[in-house]
Amino acid sequence: SIYLFSDHLKALETFSLESILSHIYYFRCRDYIELLAQVYLLPDFLSEHSKVRLVVVDGIAFPFRHDFEDLSLRTRLLNGLAQQLIIIANDHRAAVVLTNQMTTRIGQRQSTLVPALGESWGHAATVRLIFHWDNSQRLRASEMCSLQLSLRMQMVLK
C-alpha cells in the first residue's frame, strides 16, 4: 500500500551506519562475576530500553572455563544463569542467543566435537545450532530441543 511505501521511504532517509550502531548496546564482561552481575542488572536495563528484542552473550563458556576448581559450583552458577536468561526472555519478550565454544573429545577410535561446557549445558537451550565446515562448504546442523520435539536438519549455507 501507499502508506507502507511512504513509511519505508522515511525510514531510508535516516538509515545509516551511525543510526544502526546507536541502537546497539554493548557490555564487556571479563570474568564470570562480571557476567553474573550484568545478567542480574539486565531486567532493569531492558525495562528502561523497552525496544530491545535481542540479547546476545557471545562466548558463554569463556568466563567459566578457567579458575574453577569446584565444578559443582560452576554447574550451579551456569544453571542459575540459564534460568535467569529464560525468565528475562519470557518477561521482556526478547530472544536470547548464547554462543558456546566447542572442544574435541578424544576417544579410543575417534574424536568428536562437544560443547565446551558439557552436554548438559547444551540442553538449556530451546534451539541448538551447530555450525561446521565440510570440505570447503559451511554447513549448519540444527537440533531443536523440547519435551515433545526432537528434530535434526542439515543445510548448506552459501
Brief summary of the model shown:
The protein is α+β, with helices and mostly antiparallel strands. 41% of the residues lie in helices and 27% in strands. It has one domain (2-125): P-loop containing nucleotide triphosphate hydrolases (Rossmann fold), CATH 3.40.50.300.
What's the arrangement of secondary structure elements?
Layout: H1 2-13, H2 17-21, H3 32-48, E1 54-57, H4 62-65, H5 71-92, E2 95-98, E3 102-106, E4 111-115, H6 119-122, E5 127-134, E6 137-145, E7 150-157
Parallel strand pairs: 1-2
Antiparallel strand pairs: 3-4, 5-6, 6-7
Helix pairs in contact: 3-5
Keywords: ATP-binding, DNA damage, DNA repair, Nucleotide-binding, Nucleus
GO biological process, one term: meiotic DNA recombinase assembly
InterPro entries: HR_Repair_Mediator, P-loop_NTPase, Rad51_C, RecA_ATP-bd
CATH architecture: 3-Layer(aba) Sandwich
Output the CATH topology. Answer: Rossmann fold
Beta-strand portion reads 25-35%
The number of E-state strands comes to 7
Structure explained in plain terms:
This protein is α+β, with helices and mostly antiparallel strands and 158 residues long. The protein has a single domain (2-125), classed as Rossmann fold (3-Layer(aba) Sandwich). It contains six helices and seven strands, in the order αααβααβββαβββ. The protein has helices spanning 2-13, 17-21, 32-48, 62-65, 71-92, 119-122; strands spanning 54-57, 95-98, 102-106, 111-115, 127-134, 137-145, 150-157. It has a three-stranded antiparallel beta sheet, with no helix packed on it. Strands 1-2 form a two-stranded parallel sheet. A two-stranded antiparallel sheet has the order 3-4. Strand 6 (137-145) and strand 7 form a beta hairpin. Helix 3 (32-48) packs parallel to helix 5 (71-92).
